[in-house]
Amino acid sequence: MSDTNSPQDWNTLAERVACHVENYLSGLEAVARGEGGTHTIPLLLLEVSQVILAGAQLGASADVILPDNWEPEIGDDPDLDHVRQGLAERLVTVDEYVEVFDPYKDTEPTSYRLSDDLVDVASDLVHGLRHYQQDRPLEALWWWQYSYFNHWGNHAGAALRALHAVIAGARLDVVQESVAVQ
Which of the 8 DSSP states describes residue 37? Predict the structure, then answer.
């Protein structure tokens, strides 16, 4: 996108991001309810990858600036603890992992939980979605972009790496075992 985004450009981007957000939220809730079965990790990898695409679009866009430089009040965001708990139950064997939060500034790994990361992302996204659903696409974009750089982008990236490691480890272990058997 160019540095001079028109209202139509912003509306188009907001619509695209809102679609990614809605898909992420519904996918996360389905997995938390146990609908992923044996495909829980691959489904989460897909959901996180797609929402990171939305983040990349926000990151590649010009800064979203609110005309009055303030965010209208939208009330309390929904409580997502039931989603966090459902994910923790499904991810029990892989929920905890370590990550270097900022590869340019941090030198020590930090402990994380996939269930926390996935719901932290959801919390930021649902806040922006509420603006979007109240027909305020610019406020939604501002929030999504700001929180992408400030919070959910890091958590989504860390979760993506952890999910990838679980899947890659399982697939590569299977390949090594089958080669050794031959």
Answer: G
**Which residue in this structure is represented by tokens 């996939």?**
114
Q: So where are the chain's domains?
A: 7-62+92-170
Q: Give residue 146's identity as a one-letter amino acid code.
A: Y
Q: Which runs of E-coded beta strand occur in 100-178? A: 110-113
Quote the pLDDT of residue 7: 60
pLDDT at 77: 83
Which phi and psi angles does 164 have, rounded to 5°? -60, -45
Select from 1.20.120, 1.10.8, 1.10.287, 1.20.58 the CATH code of 7-62+92-170. Answer: 1.20.120
pLDDT tens-digit series, residues 68-94: 876 777 878 889 999 999 999 999 999
What global pTM score does this model have?
0.86
- CA–CA separation, 12 and 30 (whole Å): 27
Alpha-carbon dihedral sign for residues 68, 10, 152, 47? positive
Closest CA to 34 of 73, 108, 78, 91: 91
| Residue 49, both tokens | 């990858």
111: which strand partners? 98
Of 31-40, 57-66, 89-98, 99-108, minimum mean pLDDT range: 99-108
- Tell me how far apart the terminal alpha carbons of the chain are, to the nearest angstrom: 53
